[in-house]
Automatic annotation (TrEMBL), chain A:
Function: F(1)F(0) ATP synthase produces ATP from ADP in the presence of a proton or sodium gradient. F-type ATPases consist of two structural domains, F(1) containing the extramembraneous catalytic core and F(0) containing the membrane proton channel, linked together by a central stalk and a peripheral stalk. During catalysis, ATP synthesis in the catalytic domain of F(1) is coupled via a rotary mechanism of the central stalk subunits to proton translocation.
Family annotation (HAMAP family): ATP_synth_b_bprime
Membrane association type: Single-pass membrane protein
Coarse class of the protein's main subcellular location: membrane
Transmembrane segments: 15-36
GO biological process annotation, one example: proton motive force-driven ATP synthesis
GO cellular component: endomembrane system; proton-transporting ATP synthase complex
Protein name as annotated: Unannotated protein
Organism name: freshwater metagenome
Automatic annotation (TrEMBL), chain B:
Stretches that traverse the bilayer: 36-53, 91-111, 123-141, 162-181, 187-207, 214-234, 240-258
Keyword Transmembrane: yes
PANTHER family: ATP SYNTHASE SUBUNIT A (PTHR11410:SF0)
Protein name listed in UniProt: Unannotated protein
Matches recorded under Gene3D superfamilies: ATP synthase, F0 complex, subunit A
Pfam families registered for this protein in UniProt: ATP-synt_A (PF00119)
Organism the protein comes from: freshwater metagenome
Amino acid sequence: MSPLIRLSEEAANPLIPHTAELIVGTIAFILLFLVMRSKVVPMFEKAFALRTEAIQGGMEKAEKAQRDAEQALTEYTAQLADARGEAQKIREDARVQGVAIIEELRTKAQEEAARITELATASIEAERQAAIKALRTEVGTLATELASKIVGEALDDQVRQSRIVDRFLDDLEKSN
Amino acid sequence: MSQIAAPAGPGYEPPSTADFNLPPVFGDSLYTTKPVLLVLLSIVVISIFFIIASRKAAVVPSKLQFSGEMVYGFVRNNIGQEIIGHEFMRFVPFLFTLFTFVLVNNIFGIVPLLQFPAMSHVAFPYVLALFTFVIFHWVGIKKQGLGKYLKGIAFMPDVPKAVYILLTPIEIATFFLVRPLTLSLRLFANMFAGHLLLLVFITGGDYMIHDTNLFMKILAPFSFAMGIGMTFFELMVQCLQAYIITLLTALFIAGALADEH
């Protein structure tokens, strides 16, 4: 090849390379290649990797946020349902309790009424007995007095007096 | 160019291949010619730009880092990953170097003051094609073993035996001669022709404007306008050629990695 190259340095055949340019071209290309391989390509690759990572990280973060939000929503929905259930239960309890209270009050009132009625009856009975007793005594005394006045005979003897009165009253009841 | 555009000369001397053999910029060495210095300048410019652009490796890139990443991402994803497949990362530094080296040197062809595409000197495309040639064969041999790799090239499977008479020489020529030659000559010829085209319009305009004929003077601006138009066209060709050489290199590597062609 060397004779050709020497020729090219003199003649102007553009297809025949110059030795100097072959050497410089080779060295220059290798130098540039070394710079690209050691400095430029790794740094660009690093930037690309970082970017990919950042995008993936961002997406993962967004996904996590969405998952969290969904979970929170589920929790809140569950809590709301619980609260509704609780309210329903409280209302139900209140209703039951209300019914019980009314029932209890009614019973109490009835009992009270019964008691009052009974008391009244007893009281009336006692009054009646007392009245009967009083009347009996009074009537007896009056009658005795009257009779003694009529008969002129003092019937102050208590026992006798009482016996006479009883007999009189019994007769009276019988005649009725 | 000023050498040829002799303003008051006897006639227009069109630019020729001689215009590509510039004298040394300084000294008397072939190592100080314009294309050599431009290639050296290009690796300095590319290195500085990409080292600064990639230095921070920030998640949220600055404008500078973003522009560097755009070029890198283009080569890495649109050429490397898409064509080579899952093993692409090994070849990204090479493909990226190839792309930026060719791109910047091509664009130097229209950068004011520099204005010379180093790739129009065939030595540089030859060097690049040689790297590609060595790499894709080495990858194929390493992946499939020397015997199997050569057999795969020479005797394509699932082909009737008689066809080998025709196919084997073609395939061997393709892999060992045509591929590196076309790869380098395509780049060289595009840059060479493009530069020549710009020379024609600009030196032509220069010649016409200095001509004594008024008609020629009137037409001169059109020649300059064409020169400017062609400069934009060249920009497109320069970018395209950088893309094509990288794309083809990736395709060759992908072919060598694949079990059968």
